[in-house]
Design brief:
By secondary structure, the protein is α+β, with helices and mostly antiparallel strands. The protein has 3 helices and 7 strands. Bound molecules: nickel (II) ion.
Length: 182
């Protein structure tokens, strides 16, 4: 089992749009395995590659005993129905706020072997998919909060114990995409 350091709010890699995966090789399989291990160890309901410092469009999820991954996700919203509920993020540890999301989502993408796959979800699964897909665009759930909640959230983040810790020491990756934000 290989867990990797989870990048925290303030790390530029979380604000860098991730690149499309074009090579479905062993390196990608290792990435998905590391994402799963790190997510399950945390534990969290989802984890996106940028959160472990990798700028590729991949995320994993663990919602209602459904564990999986998706590469190059493209989201569709079959209805306008919204949901309100508490949301958190492993990159913003220990904090959560109410965040509005769509209630239903369909995500098309690929699996680790490059085969086309789709995930359909409602409620928490839909929330997770939207949250993780946002990570791949450099968007954090804090950006999705209403103005008043966002102000409170940013203040709580500034005051969080982890906010002033030095970033984890990570080895430079040989993959050219990986180092873009560093
Ligand atoms: Ni997150």
């Amino acid at each position: 089992m290989a867990t990797r350091a989870i990048r925290l709010f303030g790390d530029p890699v979380l604000r860098t749009p991730a690149a499309e995966v074009t090579t479905f090789d062993k390196e990608l399989r290792v990435l998905v395995k590391d994402l799963l291990d790190t997510m399950l160890d945390a534990p969290g309901v989802g984890l996106a590659a940028p959160q472990i410092g990798v700028g590729l469009r991949v995320f994993t999820y663990d919602v209602d005993d459904q564990i999986g991954h998706l590469v190059n996700p493209v989201l569709h919203f079959p209805s306008d129905e919204d949901q309100d509920g508490e949301e958190g993020c492993l990159s913003v540890p220990g904090l959560s706020w109410d965040c509005k999301r769509k209630q239903h989502v369909v995500a098309h993408g690929q699996n680790v072997y490059g085969d086309p796959v789709s995930i359909e979800g409602s409620a928490l699964m839909a929330r997770c998919i939207q949250h993780e897909a946002d990570h791949l665009d450099g968007i954090l759930f804090v950006d999705r909060l209403d103005a008043e909640t966002k102000r409170a959230a940013l203040e709580a983040i500034r005051e969080a114990e982890w906010a002033n810790e030095p970033p984890p020491v990570v080895k430079a990756s040989p993959h050219p995409l990986f180092g873009r934000a560093r």
